[in-house]
Structures are given as C-alpha cells and as structure tokens.
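Bit of a strange request maybe. I'm writing a small parser for structure token strings and I need a real example to test against, not something I typed by hand. Could someone generate the tokens for this chain?
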Amino acid sequence: MSAGRRNVSRKSVITALQRTLINPISRRVPSAHLIETVGRKSGEPRTTPVSGRLDGDEYWFVSEYGPASQYVKNIQANPEVRIRVKNVWRSGRAVLRPDDDPRRRLRTISRNASVVVRAVGDDLLSIQVVLRSTG
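Reply from user aminoacidic:
Good idea to test on real output. This should exercise your parser:
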C-alpha cells in the first residue's frame, strides 16, 4: 500500500453510506421507524432510522455496531428517547440489553431489516425502549 493511501474499513464505508445517503432518505419516509436521541456533546436531537418491533409498550431493535454506534453512545449518556412508528412519536427510556440474544431478537423483527443488520453488523446489541403510556 502506498504512503498516500489509507486503509478504509468496511465499517467506515458502510457508516459513511448510512450517514450521507441511506439515513437522510429514510428519515423522510413516513413509515420508517426512527429513534431520536439527545446528542451527548451537542445536546441537540439526533434522529436515526432503525428497524425494530413494537410489542405493546416496548420497542425492540438491534444495533449492528453495538456500543460503537453513535446513537448507542447517546443513549448511554441520556437514555430518554423518542421512537417513531407508523408516523407516531412516543417517548420512552432506552435500555441496552447485552444479556439478550441479538440474533434471536432479529428473528422477531422484519426479515429484510434483520438480513441487513446481520450482513453489516459486527457487534450486535439488543436495545429495548420502554415506552410511556399514550393515554
């Protein structure tokens, strides 16, 4: 490798694609599931598309990069989040679940989403959001 070339990891390429192309498009799709965290440095809302499953007053999803994901770091700093499902926002508290089997969890989520997370992920982490009652 020449001195002028840097080693670009698969993760950095996927993250760049997500940040610049996939996430901005997904945020505009009304049916897309989104998680809104508070930026741990900026204090500003940060919205990230996720693929998960609403189960009563819980929303479960799997982070493909686990604790290395920026939104997971935001959750660690402030677990109060909002989730958008079916174009409705709900507030809740996110809980990292390293004791949960993320591969088993993915089987309960959309097949297309779980295929993508499994294909690109290298440190899967289950996340549970305990939602506040709407009534």
